[in-house]
Specification:
The chain has six helices and nine strands, in the order βαβαβαβαβαββαββ. The structure holds 5-O-phosphono-beta-D-ribofuranosylamine.
Amino acid sequence: MPKVKIGVLISGSGTNLQALIDNIEKGLINGEISIVISDKKDAFGIQRAKKHGINAVEIDKKNFADKNIFMKAIMDELEKHHVELVVLAGFLSILSEDFIEKFRNRIINIHPSLIPAFCGKGYYGQRVHKAALDYGVKVSGATVHFVDEGADTGPIILQEAVKVEDDDTPESLAARILKVEHKLLPQAVKLYCEGRLTIEGRKVIIRTQND
Ligand code: GRF
């Protein structure tokens, strides 16, 4: 089976990107990262990629007055590297409809809550964890899902719950959930790269290795 060419989009520190790199280097994923793109200048994730000899570029959103031209620049870069699977690893820009159409069912996102709780427009970064704590939930967690036109509405691939402690702060909860993200995202990418994910309506069916 040929390796799946992966494009990873980031906006910041890139610890999820690092988890993917580590799993690929260990030979656990039948894929290779062809390009890492950051929509922000000086994102630390770019340095992580370069350190591992991976192509990485900044396409700074601030340099584009028009969203469609910005999206087109990202799509062109992905195309240049023959990307088959797009992974959003802490990518903060909202994708255009053209982008989603072009990579239909081939875009995976990680979100730091148990979707459909604390997700959608405005729920990013520490806001997600603050909202969960303010609500008083006993569990939160991480979700990996396919991306569709809605905000965090696409079919769910994997989820894992994380217990909320009475003395949690948004920072402490985020840190525990991030550890789970680092496990869940590579696991979902691995399943995708082995061709084991099938979307049936809203459901993602995961085939076992022997099916
Ligand atoms: C993660 O919590 C991710 O779920 C969210 O942004 C954070 C990114 O972290 N969308 P990193 O850049 O991968 O370290």
